[in-house]
Amino acid sequence: MKKYIFFRILRSIVSIFLVTTLTYIIIYTMVPRRDVFKQDPNIQKMASNPDNLLDYEQTAYDKMNYIDYVDTKGLISKVENAHPDVTATAKHTATNAKLFQDWAKQNGYALHRYQVSKNYYAVRELPIWERVSRFYGSLIQIDSPWKIHDSKNPNLARYLKIENDKTVGWALVGSGTKYRYQIYFNGSFPYIHQNILKFDLGTSYPTFAGNSVTQVIGGRQGQTVSTKYKFPNGQVMNTADNVYTRQYQSRAHRDEMAYDRYKDDYTNTDQVNQDPSMIGTSFRAGIVALIVSYVIAIPIALGMARMKGKWFDRFFTAVVTIFISIPGLAFIYAFRYLGSQFFGLPDSFPTKGASAISSWVLPTIILGMMGIWGIVIWFRRYMIDQQQSDYVKFAKAKGLTDREIYRRHIFKNASIPIVQGIPGSIIGLIGGAMMTETIFAMPGMGKMLPNAITDHNNTVVIGLVFIFAIISIMSTLLGDILMSIVDPRIKLSTSGSEE
Amino acid sequence: MADAIDNERSIQALTEDKLGNSDLITDDDFVQVPLDTLASEKIDTPKYSYWGSVAKAFFSNKVTVLMLVLVVFILGMSFIQPLFSGYSLKDVSKINDLGARYNWPSSKYWFGTDQNGQSLFDAIWAGARTSISIGVIGTLITTTIGVIVGGIWGVSKRLDKVMLEVYNVISNVPSLLIIIVLSYTLGSGFWNLIFAMTCTSWLGTAYSIRVYVMMYRDREYNIASKTLGTPTFRVVTRNILPYLTSVIVTSASLSLSGFIDYEVFLSYVGVGLSQNVPSLGRLISTYSPYMTSYPYLFWLPVLTLALLTISLYVVGQNLADASDPRTHM
What we know:
The structure holds two protein chains of two kinds.
Chain A: H1 2-30, H2 41-45, H3 50-63, E1 67-70, H4 72-82, H5 94-107, E2 110-113, E3 120-125, H6 128-137, E4 140-142, E5 159-165, E6 169-175, E7 181-185, E8 192-194, E9 197-199, H7 213-218, E10 221-224, E11 227-230, E12 236-239, E13 241-247, H8 256-262, E14 268-271, E15 273-275, H9 278-306, H10 311-325, H11 328-342, H12 349-352, H13 358-387, H14 390-398, H15 402-440, H16 445-454, H17 458-486
Helix pairs in contact in A: 1-17, 9-10, 9-13, 9-15, 10-13, 11-13, 11-15, 13-15, 14-15, 15-16, 15-17, 16-17
Chain B: H1 2-21, H2 37-41, H3 50-59, H4 62-85, H5 120-155, H6 157-171, H7 175-186, H8 190-217, H9 220-227, H10 232-240, H11 245-269, H12 280-287, H13 295-322
Helix pairs in contact in B: 3-13, 4-5, 4-13, 5-6, 5-8, 5-11, 5-12, 7-8, 8-11, 11-12, 11-13, 12-13
């Protein structure tokens, strides 16, 4: 059993890896790379200055790992690093040109010149396998006291200590690390937090330009919220800075006011925003929707099975047929209309925002309702098959009432297909959430995917595919394990033989 | 299937009743008949034609016939009407004619007109044509590939190992995710969209065929057939696949409305079809701002879409039921 679960987890990880890699390869090889600038307003602004435009474009490609780009300044320092005895300048002399040319040749770069200034720059096309390995290489970031190397700050202390910090209380505090607070506690769920292990999915571009994809998908959204903090210098003030996310800031970019407040080099903070993150929004809506689908579907299916062939069964068979065949878009719009006309619920999420519960009601319930019909069909079929089984006949012969038979016997057995269906429902929910979130303009991952695609934001697309693949593949795995707990007759380890 | 069993039971009950009612038998009931050599040569079973029985079972359901009429009407309108209307998204001839804009449905404009003065009636049928074409072509491709691969998959153990792994990976990823990413990478266009949709969805059909082929493969009649020297290919095509007609029709009817659903959503978010191709999804997305001001513009395409998929689904499901020989008794 343990061996089976180990191999099952291994296979799930391989699946996630395969799906992500394939997506990565097809997106980065098949989508024309110029497309990323289609929606970018900066391109228009820079049209009059071809050098800046070129620099901007090459920098963007470099950030997206299409190429390695070295501008004139970078070229000079690279050449001087490689040959400490020579000095290169930006001047267009033959010696400089030769130095650049040699360096470019050695490192596989191609040397080019800017259109107007005729300065040199070098570009290296990255082969797809190198891009993929860079993506996975930087995927998991583990913080350690040897993480930061700042030439302006050679005497940076390097340690990890458990101490009672003046601003955040008891915490594992690091120096030389990227984040100041490695492990900390606060009042928000799940109460114990860490900054040691972080995922890096690349940099978002052209929308949310410059932000990391993890921040775009996992960071909180909406307006900033101020909280009262007591700073190490004794000052008490309201700030929107999230002091728990203090990161090392190089002395070159230091903000003196922040330095005065914190008294150390960890002055770069994220902001505290009021609304849940994209992933949080989708998770909340998804979990409630899953509960809604099961809570509505199971009584309907039970009723249909008990009254098989009667009006209740026939009526709901017709309802199920209509709702299972109706396109999701028509379904969502119809119920959105009903909900806003007759219950006065907001028909768009941003109208009242994430803080109002009423704006969550319609998208969540509709998302749940989209999943009901599949469960009903499958559960009714199961219940009807059970009705004809020997143990039910025996219970009847013993003189048990219908109610008892359903409650004590059939329903217990029926919990198996309920559990079995959960992973499928979760996979269905991801597809459904893309529709509901898009139509309700709900700022979740499901809305972000079509948005990222129309904006040609490739890194975010891959980040989302990665997260969706993890959710769906892991839910299948958990469903199987859960099933073997619910039904002790199921032995996963021997499930390989189907014939 | 449960209904078929019920039917069988009621027939049994009827015959038992008849036997019980017959009176005592006397010698008078018997007449001597000379031996008829000609009649003994005759095979006297009622003639059974498979497709005849399918048609009989199919047309016996009134709802199905009604839905079939609806399907034929929508198909007819969407493939014939655009030939005469000449609807084009790029047509802006009436854009400055204020009188032609936003007309509510009337005898002149049956479904009203939109912000460019174009008739919604023409737009809906032109859009439905694209949506239906995508659904039908996609279904044809997935069903053909699915049945062929599924047939081989069911009997080949070597292929089974590889394909199961592939299936486990693909089936765990939401299909809308695969389609949306593929149609993004392939760029927009009718055939690109069809490729994106069919690229992985045939696996589902193939898997269900595989399960049934495995179920029937080791039945006694197939073992007998194999022992008599029938090659595996012939066993699959002649002995097994005909049994799976209803399975194939069910999966085809599911994928037909599924593909239309995907096309509508993709066009709605602006991925997939090119800008100048009308489709129901594009109509719904362009007219969604008019939901309250000119509701007919929005709700009529939605209604057409819903009627189309519901009728296609009901017809497909009942055709699948009718094509199952067990319902022919």
